[in-house]
Amino acid sequence: MIKFHPSEQHLVLYAAGELSPAMLMMVGTHVDMCPKCQAHVQDIEQHMAAKLFGESETANIVHGFDEQAMLQAIFDSQQPAVNNTAAANDSLFLEGHRFALPPTLARNSHRIGEWSRLPGKLWRAPVRVGGEEMLNFIYMDKHASLPEHTHKGNEVTIVVNGVFNDENNEYRDGDFMLLDEQHKHSPATQDHDCLTIAALEGPLYFTTGLSRLLNPFSSLFFK
Amino acid sequence: MSSAQPDNPEHAAELLAKIAAEQSRAAFSELFRYFAPRLQAYATRQFGNEQTAMDLVQETMTNVWHKAHLFKPDRGSAATWIFTIARNIRFDLLRKNKHRQNDLSADDLWPVLAETNDSLDDDYALDNDLLMQQLAVYCEQLPKAQRTVIELIYIEGKSQQEVADALEIPLGTVKSRTRLALQKLKELIQHDD
């Protein structure tokens, strides 16, 4: 079972599209893998929709546009291009292993760059999503370890497939872990290899927008 | 005539079904007159720019008109579906003028308007995810013959035909073992809940 989840604030900002590109990919990947957070995001979307289309908004309606003209323009419009993302590549091959990619990563598999080998049985490939924050796949072979390190800013890691440990815990498929500058840790694998994806968390973009429909800062908006 | 309003979820879902089935302009007009002004009021305050707000309303409602067949009543309400379309359009509008290479588009993140492929529909994806991430433990409890088939298909990614060839057994046997194994897994999970 998945033990480590994004915060509710992450989920609200994901549902509103108000995180950095790298963090949207990270939260989306966790949500793909976690039925609990999937249900939570659906709840959040439902609450935002209720606020957006609900009673309080009717007070702001000024009918300041020509509805009939827009209706006619819509009836006259062409069918938009068919968008078929289901054909995305859902497998990643590395070192003779096949990894199933969760849907968010599969839809964006064309953004995965070249793999490069790092010292200590590690491989890395960038995922190009725009924005300031780095997003990387990190693959750790069996019996691999990273030297003890801290992070500048927060680092988020998700296990896509496999298992690794640090001093504090064991992390498995779907686990979403957030480490801040205070955390020193030395991740290592034992008898299993491990594919992870990692991002440095930039500033959260929450000053305006859809997420303001809810209050992501209240502790657990709907429990 | 029904006296229900589009703020009644069942009625809104019926309107979408009518649009999908018979391109009913009356059904769409009714939905439009409810949702469009609310979206417009919200978007005007958010963007502080009436033209961008109007673009958001028109693009959102154009998709509702053409893509009503993608609405799945079991996944959420009509209002929530329309909200997710507006969220996606907004996401793309906010990035539209930047023209940066590699930027994510809303479809990359939330495939609200993707035509689903029958062989890879949501049920399959969910079953697959559940199996991959949470059911490894339950697999241990399957009879060996069924477990082998499940591992080859879901962990190694082989097709049923490839499994039949590898194990030198008929395709029908692979299919029935898969079906029995999935059924058994479902029982094990439900029993555990």
UniProtKB/TrEMBL annotation, chain A:
<dbReference type="InterPro" id="IPR027383">
    <property type="entry name" value="Znf_put"/>
</dbReference>
<protein>
    <submittedName>
        <fullName>Anti-ECFsigma factor, ChrR</fullName>
    </submittedName>
</protein>
<feature type="domain" description="ChrR-like cupin">
    <location>
        <begin position="114"/>
        <end position="201"/>
    </location>
</feature>
<dbReference type="InterPro" id="IPR025979">
    <property type="entry name" value="ChrR-like_cupin_dom"/>
</dbReference>
<dbReference type="InterPro" id="IPR012807">
    <property type="entry name" value="Anti-sigma_ChrR"/>
</dbReference>
<dbReference type="InterPro" id="IPR011051">
    <property type="entry name" value="RmlC_Cupin_sf"/>
</dbReference>
<dbReference type="InterPro" id="IPR041916">
    <property type="entry name" value="Anti_sigma_zinc_sf"/>
</dbReference>
<dbReference type="Pfam" id="PF13490">
    <property type="entry name" value="zf-HC2"/>
</dbReference>
<feature type="domain" description="Putative zinc-finger">
    <location>
        <begin position="9"/>
        <end position="38"/>
    </location>
</feature>
<dbReference type="Pfam" id="PF12973">
    <property type="entry name" value="Cupin_7"/>
</dbReference>
<dbReference type="InterPro" id="IPR014710">
    <property type="entry name" value="RmlC-like_jellyroll"/>
</dbReference>
Automatic annotation (TrEMBL), chain B:
<dbReference type="InterPro" id="IPR013325">
    <property type="entry name" value="RNA_pol_sigma_r2"/>
</dbReference>
<dbReference type="Pfam" id="PF08281">
    <property type="entry name" value="Sigma70_r4_2"/>
</dbReference>
<comment type="similarity">
    <text>Belongs to the sigma-70 factor family. ECF subfamily.</text>
</comment>
<dbReference type="InterPro" id="IPR014284">
    <property type="entry name" value="RNA_pol_sigma-70_dom"/>
</dbReference>
<dbReference type="InterPro" id="IPR013324">
    <property type="entry name" value="RNA_pol_sigma_r3/r4-like"/>
</dbReference>
<keyword id="KW-0731">Sigma factor</keyword>
<keyword id="KW-0805">Transcription regulation</keyword>
<dbReference type="GO" id="GO:0006352">
    <property type="term" value="P:DNA-templated transcription initiation"/>
</dbReference>
<dbReference type="InterPro" id="IPR036388">
    <property type="entry name" value="WH-like_DNA-bd_sf"/>
</dbReference>
<feature type="domain" description="RNA polymerase sigma factor 70 region 4 type 2">
    <location>
        <begin position="140"/>
        <end position="185"/>
    </location>
</feature>
<dbReference type="InterPro" id="IPR039425">
    <property type="entry name" value="RNA_pol_sigma-70-like"/>
</dbReference>
<dbReference type="Pfam" id="PF04542">
    <property type="entry name" value="Sigma70_r2"/>
</dbReference>
<dbReference type="GO" id="GO:0003677">
    <property type="term" value="F:DNA binding"/>
</dbReference>
<protein>
    <submittedName>
        <fullName>RNA polymerase sigma-70 factor, ECF subfamily</fullName>
    </submittedName>
</protein>
<feature type="domain" description="RNA polymerase sigma-70 region 2">
    <location>
        <begin position="31"/>
        <end position="99"/>
    </location>
</feature>
<keyword id="KW-0804">Transcription</keyword>
<dbReference type="InterPro" id="IPR013249">
    <property type="entry name" value="RNA_pol_sigma70_r4_t2"/>
</dbReference>
<dbReference type="InterPro" id="IPR007627">
    <property type="entry name" value="RNA_pol_sigma70_r2"/>
</dbReference>
<dbReference type="GO" id="GO:0016987">
    <property type="term" value="F:sigma factor activity"/>
</dbReference>
